[in-house]
């Protein structure tokens, strides 16, 4: 049987792959989206009900990309006919004179992002049930909020199919043959296309070597923890409690973030922004709970209205690069293969902006969004 032929094949049906495929199909490209697991699934990085969407970043280019991303999320909402975003505001706390906190403030100011500075003497009036750390300052990014993650992936896949796109799950890629037409072989079929986009998430290090490429990607397991409110509703989205980020907490090296109780009634989501290295195919063998201990200590100190032991613990996988910024570029040898990897740290919230760059990159040579430090150049090993 002859291989099925397409204009473009996208490997990986997470948030990046689904949005890339959606925009390729929307722009009249015959597109195939391949996924190794049965859809929907919770094995990778794109599942879960909620993410924070914001412009408060230490890096200016993230804030700049978010402007485009928010506009495109709104367009997807209209096309899919579903709500994907809820405005809650984002409380940012951190050492007043700390480098990261000052960089975020500078980014907010230079991009004219709406924000309100909270003076220490009025903090508890505006943000009840939270103890501001001595020496910390705080502000609220007023237009930030919650992105409904699972719903967003489903919406992208739905409109992709509405534009004639094809999704095939249970398609683990076993071989990639580059050329003017790229041939992709899975356990279930053979497919050919003029261009290929690889957005394999935690499995990128399994797929990229099939093209002769290696990147120093690390997969870590994140414990996604939900903490019970002592007084129901005290940290609820319906009571207008904001999302938050704690920069440089006293308890640990990395940031802590949280979302108001929403997906589980009476339970607030708080997570540590890093985890323990793991194998994506054996994630449950990783039993390290040091991040949960960090969160328990932080909650005891700063969130007195929460029980400092998690009521629910789920898991998610992050894929990170050495500098914790994503890689988005062409394959160094094959210009019709585009690589996207390492998105987990700043993943879902700017997916719409990045998928636009994937689309621009994949059909024909064009310049793509990339900083010098997150282009593959310094990382790539071929062979």
Automatic annotation (TrEMBL):
Gene Ontology biological process terms in this record: L-lysine catabolic process to acetyl-CoA via L-pipecolate
Alphabetized Pfam families for the sequence: DAO
Chain segments carrying region Disordered: 355-383
GO (cellular component) term, any one: peroxisome
Domain FAD dependent oxidoreductase: 7-346
Compositionally skewed regions (Polar residues) per UniProt: 370-383
Cofactors demanded by this protein: FAD
InterPro entries attached to this UniProt entry: FAD-dep_OxRdtase (IPR006076), FAD/NAD-bd_sf (IPR036188), MTOX (IPR045170)
Statement: the UniProt record of this protein carries the keyword Oxidoreductase: yes
NAD is among the record's keywords: no
UniProt keywords, alphabetically: FAD, Flavoprotein, Oxidoreductase
Top-level taxon of origin: Eukaryota
Gene Ontology molecular function terms on file: flavin adenine dinucleotide binding; L-pipecolate oxidase activity; sarcosine oxidase activity
Family from the record: Belongs to the MSOX/MTOX family.
Protein name (database record): FAD dependent oxidoreductase domain-containing protein
Provenance organism: Pygocentrus nattereri (Red-bellied piranha)
């Amino acid at each position: 049987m002859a291989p099925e032929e397409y204009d473009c094949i996208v490997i990986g049906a997470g948030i990046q792959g689904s949005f890339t495929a959606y925009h390729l199909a929307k722009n009249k490209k015959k597109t195939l989206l391949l996924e190794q697991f049965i859809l929907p699934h919770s094995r990778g990085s794109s599942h879960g009900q909620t993410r924070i969407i914001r412009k408060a970043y230490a890096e200016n280019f993230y804030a700049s990309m978010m402007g485009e991303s928010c506009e495109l999320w709104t367009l997807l909402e209209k096309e899919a006919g579903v709500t994907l975003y809820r405005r809650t505001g984002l409380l940012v706390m951190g050492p007043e004179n700390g480098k990261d906190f000052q960089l975020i403030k500078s980014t907010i100011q230079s991009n004219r992002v709406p924000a309100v500075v909270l003076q220490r003497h009025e903090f508890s009036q505006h943000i009840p049930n939270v103890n501001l750390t001595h020496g910390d300052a705080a502000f609220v990014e007023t237009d930030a909020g919650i992105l409904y993650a699972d719903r967003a992936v489903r919406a992208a896949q739905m409109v992709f199919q509405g534009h004639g796109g094809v999704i095939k799950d249970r398609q683990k890629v076993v071989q990639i043959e580059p050329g003017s037409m790229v041939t992709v072989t899975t356990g279930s079929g053979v497919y050919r296309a003029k261009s290929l986009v690889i957005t394999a998430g935690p499995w990128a290090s399994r797929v990229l070597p099939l093209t002769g490429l290696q990147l120093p990607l690390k997969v870590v397991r994140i414990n996604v923890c939900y903490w019970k409110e002592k007084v129901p509703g005290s940290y609820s989205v319906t009571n207008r409690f904001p999302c938050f980020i704690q920069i440089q907490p006293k308890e640990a090296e990395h940031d802590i973030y949280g979302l108001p109780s929403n997906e589980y009634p009476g339970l607030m989501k708080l997570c540590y922004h890093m985890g323990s290295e793991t194998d994506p195919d054996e994630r449950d063998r990783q039993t390290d709970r040091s991040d949960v201990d960090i969160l328990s200590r932080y909650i005891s100190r700063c969130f007195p209205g929460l029980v400092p032991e998690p009521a629910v613990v789920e898991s998610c996988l992050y894929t990170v690069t050495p500098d914790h910024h994503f890689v988005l570029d062409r394959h160094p040898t094959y210009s019709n293969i585009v690589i996207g990897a390492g998105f987990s740290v700043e993943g879902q919230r700017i997916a719409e902006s990045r998928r636009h760059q994937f689309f621009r990159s994949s059909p024909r040579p064009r310049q793509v969004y990339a900083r010098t430090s997150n282009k593959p150049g310094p990382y790539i090993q071929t062979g």
